[in-house]
Design goal:
single chain; 121 residues; alpha+beta; 6 helices; 5 strands; elongated
């Protein structure tokens, strides 16, 4: 399964919209690359049925548009890479300290880690 890059800013409200539509969401933070290679980013794994995609499209069209690159292919499991995300995602996570720590590690030229299961739901 290839990762699909998201080009719009991802926020806590987007995650809440996915959950509201009945889409399964797993979220990780990836700082395992040098900053010249790849920016720190969110790894978003979603599993959506056709019904859930239609609910998302009708209830939360803005979020649907952000994920359209994956969801237009229909139901299934998709991996998305979110390089631009709001601070509210980090602030809401029970692992926010680890995320901030890994951001600082990368900012200072070292390589961080992948932090799994950063969701709060």
């Amino acid at each position: 399964m290839a990762k699909i890059v998201m080009y719009e800013t991802f926020s806590k409200s987007d995650i809440e919209a996915l959950l509201d539509a009945g889409i399964t969401v797993n979220l990780a933070f990836d700082a395992s690359h040098g900053k010249q290679e790849k920016t720190v980013h969110l790894e978003l794994l979603i599993d959506a049925s056709n019904e859930a995609i239609q609910r998302l499209r009708s209830r939360h069209n803005g979020t649907y548009i952000k994920l359209k690159g994956a969801l237009m292919q229909g139901e299934g499991t998709y991996k998305l890479e979110c390089h631009t995300f709001d601070q509210d995602v980090v602030d809401s996570s029970p692992k926010s300290y680890e995320i901030r720590q890994n951001r600082a590690i990368v900012r200072h030229g070292d390589i961080g880690t992948i932090i799994q299961d950063i969701g709060w739901w």
